[in-house]
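Box 4.2: Ligand-aware structure prediction
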Amino acid sequence: MNRNIRAAALACATIVSFAAPALADTELKIYISSQHQPNIWRKAIDQYEAKTPGVKVTIETGGNTSEAQAQYLNTVMSAKDPSLDVLILDVIRPAQFAAAGWTSDVEGKDLSSYLPAYAEANTVGGKTVALPAFADAQFLYYRKDLLDKYGIQPPKSWDELKTAAKTITDGEKNPNLQGLSFQGKAIEGAVCTFLLPYWSQGKALTNNGRLSFDHDAAVKSLALWKSFADDGTAKKNIAEVATDDTRKEFQAGNVVFAVNWSYAWAQSQGAESAVAGKVGVARLPAMAGGESATCLGGWEWGVSAFSAHQDEAKKLVAYLSSPEVSKFMAINASLLPTYADLYKDGDVTKAAPWFADALQVVETAKPRPVTPRYNEVSETIRTTVNAVLAGVSTPEEGASQIESRLKRILR
Ligand code: GLC
């Protein structure tokens, strides 16, 4: 080989050897709900990329509500589309996704280190079908500054809340100030809206998967929410309010009390918030004579069964579900940890002091019914809550509609 040819061959080899690692990069695409701070997850993923050469991760977001996201994922997964490798799933969905064959099992992780409710939600037929991303429950957010100004304690019952809201809104004389914001739109969150006062009366919706419906408790639940709209505690068009609307209105300083999930805290303390330093978070009020109840929320990481990168996707999910990431997301995005000891972690409670008392709330939060037909259960409840708040059905009619439809679904 003459010298020139050798040099040229060497140059080629050099190019090839530089190009090889780039060609070998595994590109993972991960789906994250847009409501749950994808920009902060991005930072956690940057740290993963930095210590995992050869893996690049891109984020896709979509839909601002749980069921909008589910609808999108249903389309992608029904088409067996391989473009998404990792999916974040609302706690109500891993069982459904696993049953449909849309997620792969993610064995090899000891689930006993997580809060028991999430170990349970992610285990189907003895298999681990997803790993916990973050915990969640609904809380009562309130304007601490306004309650202090009027010498009012956070309300323990919904009646107390009504009185407190009236005192404050009458006193403030600000036409934009709402007493209470909650979710009345026909979204997944409205299922929990219905269940809060229902459960608070000591009633269960299902017993061993069968319907155990208390008609009277259901009427009272629907009537309570409707009364807030009718007496001006909530705004007239509460039937159009979704979770992130509540978050935005509260953050803008236009709401005294709000029912919301943990993610709303970080943004209420952020640079764009009108209420930073003025927010308190407490357990939700109870029905008279009942106990405070809340819905178990949370999101889970699943690996798409159609991903061409099963091993890499599972490794990424194990990382995203680790104590390290749970702590990072608790501090930076106020997403509740899935590990019990992090609720007392000094860095976490510095960022969200109320997390110190939140573990007990999460541990006693009630799960929505677990059934392969959950989508129908959800649709029934959320559309009825919405119809009652919009004045289309009375609470009595709403309770009967829920009862007769659920009877057919949960047989
Ligand atoms: C929160 C909860 C989730 C729930 C949703 C309803 O994101 O974590 O479980 O379904 O709100 O809007």
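In the box above, the bound molecule is alpha-D-glucopyranose. Residues 1-21 have pLDDT under 50 and may be disordered.
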